[in-house]
Predict the 3D structure of the following.
Amino acid sequence: MVKYVRFFSLWFGIAIIFGCIQNTFAEDISLTATIDRNSLTINDRLQLTLTIHGTQDTAPPSFPGIDGFTLLYGPKISAQTNIINGVVSVSKGYTYVLQPAAKGKFTIGPSTVEYKGKVYTSSPVTVEVADTAPSSGSQAPDMSKLVFVELSADKNEAYIYEQVILSFRFYFQKGLPVADIDYVSPGTKNFMEEKLGDQRQYEEIRDGIVYNVLELRTALFPMVSGELPISPARLKCNLIIQQRRDHRDSPVDSLFSDAFFDDFFGRGQKRYPVERTTGPVTVKVRPLPEQGKPREFNGAVGTFDMEVSVKTQHVKVGDPITLSMSVYGEGNIQTINEPLLALNNEKDFKLYPAESNTQITNQEELIRGRKVFSKVIEPQKTDLKAIPAVVFSFFDPRVGQYRTITKEPIPIVVEAGEQEMPIQLTLSGNTIVPAKQQAQILTQDILPIMTNLSSLRNQGERIYTSPFFIACLSIPAVAVIASFFVTRQKERLQTDIGYARDKRAHAIAKKRLALAKSALSQNAQKEFYSSLSKSMADYLADKFNISAASATGDKVGILLKQRGVGDDIIEEIYRCLTDFDYRRFSKDGGTKEEMDHSLTLAEQLITRLERQL
Amino acid sequence: MRIAFCGSSKSEIRNPKSEISKDEAIKLFTSANENYLQAAKCIAAKNNQEADLKLKEAATQYETILANGFMHGQIYYNLGNTYYRRGELGKAVLNYRKAQRLMPRNADLAANLKLVKNSIEDKELPNEIPVVLRRIFFWFFLLNGKELIVAAVSLYVVFMTLVFFLIILKYGWLRRLMIGFSAGLFIAVVSLGIKIHSEQGVSRGVIITTKCQVRYGPGEEYEPKFEIHNGAECLIEGEKDDWYNVYVYVGVKQEAGSKPGAEEKVGKDVRKGWLQKKDVGVI
């Protein structure tokens, strides 16, 4: 028995659910006729789909009268049930494949279907059949009809600060894969803009073809009057078109030639980059009329209402009352200013600036929201009976007139405040200090001016131009750089013998030449030539970091040649070295003039070598 | 106590462009101080008209010293006091801020600035640096630009001297000392760079008119965005013709929860707009 109860309960539940579903869409029934393309060649095939929306429980729709086409096969029946956000939609499609019989422009007549005694008719669809495609060799589709974009404003004329809805729509044929969408929004200079919700996605039939539409909406608020242009929006994307291969080159190709593998591996897919630009849109913005502008008007444009409330109505003099003024409605709620209080006497209340809090309550269709102004007021007299009326004026662009909302005064009761006791400087032991008695700061004042002259110097002088500053920066740097190079030189002279000998060679040679000169003055021929020979040989040995004994004419000649010294100098050195050695050991030292000449020659040679090595 | 300034909100001070010596500057400064003190006596005697004349003269003298290129924190501070007495809170804040750049450690100045800021309508500051950061990077906030330069140069001289002796003597302990001073020098140079950028790279301004409207664009034809009052501070991002593009920090109250009576949370919001140059005094 329990089993039967459960079974009937289940079926009862299902029946209720489907009954509800039936009810939800029973009222909205339509018949549409769509085609997969509206221009084709005589060799192509046309796919016609008749779709009944809102019910699946009808007879097939009547096949429309079609001239210039023959029915190849069909109908292929498909049924769809969609539940999106709790909204159920059902449809049933009948798909026919047609073959053009002749070229020309043809109209596929309306189809009809009868449901519960009511006849539903589809719109006619126009198709153009050409003889052959202009470029039959290429399989590239006509992309201008596959995708397009539109930019439109909901009104061409508006008042300054009036809300204008700008819609950008991207149409692409249903079933067409689109990737890499890059959108450049339109230029809206002189407008303040607020994005309206997320992008919308829906289907739309244009010339019998079903398009998927992506729509982006923006609320614009013109800030200046005049003809305000909105520059075009731009969209770039890639269309992915499946292209079947006709030739199979290898057995492997034929093995994996199935469409499944093509899809899986992305073979045969071609990306067509597409760029579309919308036309520009111009909005004529009128200034707000001066006629009838209320005194309280403070720039609010839209359709608003106001609520006013207070947290407490029973206060003492000087106690704060928070007045909450909530303005709500359609329009740029963020920019509206505080409503005004209609005070009879400015001394009745002490007013503080209002704090505001803005909430956007609807951002799907229009910018709609609420701005709450919290204003603290303090009654200053006991005879006050009400908080003054609150006035808010705005311009309503729908009727083209200013409107003023006045909220009636809110009754309050104001009592006298407590008297503050003066500070008692002396307290007797028996005195009872009242609770309210406390030290008070009577007044606050700034501290006195500064008059210290000793520290008064010009602080605006640029410190970095003073010589002391420049010296502080440059002297340490120069000292450090100099010490670095000096130390390095010193270390090298200590560690690198060749370098040290090279650097000292000239100085030693000069000393030897001085000795030779001294010997010459004493006419000591042997000493003279010995010094001269030694100075030359030692100089060359130091320069090439070799021993003095090995500084022979031949060896020195080779080394000098390696250093790029000219042949004439090498020959001269060779001759000198040989001549000085010969005269050193021979009895024929030559005349004084010859010795003088030898000394000059040696000096010149060493000087020339010092320049070249 | 301060007296209300009657008449135009525009400054009537005309500064001669002649050079003055330090002695002349001191003379003018002393005279201006005397005028200010006499004005204070007049205020105490409730002779507001005489006090206003004296304050006006004092302000002119302080402005003359500054216009001739003689700058000192004391002059800006005294000028701020003078404007405060005349009821020009915007100009008072402007001069206190200028003084603060030259005398960042002065407690009197900080107290006066706090008092003036508390008595203006828009109290939000462009950027309030947390106390923790002020304590950690104390040298940055306690030294003015010139003092930071002196500190950096002194560290540089010590560092270079250490390098000099290290090259010559090659003592190991000199190297360790040099590393310590190089870190100090690095901190000083970075601090100086930030100081220079914050004072010269970022333009700050103070509203010096009673109230002015921040607009959506640089022109009277643009609609007003919101209103800003005397003494409010702003960051100047750019300029076009007679207009500044400014960032202004404003206080915003937000509901903490959706329940009725929930406490309001006070936040800070930055608003951008255009202000006329004549309404803004650049710090």
About this structure: The two ends of chain A are 123 Å apart (CA to CA).
